[in-house]
Amino acid sequence: xxxxxIEKKKFQDQSQRQLNVMNEKDLKSKSSSLEVIPLTLKDLxxxxxxxxxxxxxxxxxxxxxxxxxxxxxxCLGIFDHxxxxxxxxxxxxVDELQLTAIAVHPIHRxxxxxxxxLSNLLVQATHKGCKRATLEVKSNNSAALAxxxxxxxxxxxxxxxxxxNGANALIQWKPLKL
Length: 178
Fold this sequence. Notes:
Blueprint: H1 2-30, E1 36-38, H2 44-54, H3 61-69, E2 73-80, E3 83-93, E4 96-104, H4 113-127, E5 132-138, H5 142-150, E6 154-159, E7 169-175
């Protein structure tokens, strides 16, 4: 009986791995057809859901409501069918874009979605008259640091104990061109 249970578990694990590989191939072939769209208050629940999964509940419902309704903010998303799988937000202050969130659902990472979102945010900010973009990133987040560096962001300072857990933030800037 125990052997049968072990064999069944192995079969289930193998089937799940095959399904994951198939899903990855499907997404990679579809990634060129995924569209970046503006998010609005009607997307509030989807934003909260992705925030909880990808950002560990960084923002409250009221913060998301403000992010999605304030005319000085840009909030973009990528949906796969009815599921929000990537989000990027920024706040326009005078002629600067202050990036507030970039997040991709964990099962959809490493497929270029963050790059797609950030590229669109920077283009929209430029069209709205922004001359530079800024953000804060955890000083120990090497993947994010490399990602932003690939876009031309340069470290210009730091904020000590910036995050809830006491981690420091690095301040980065990038000039924007029309």
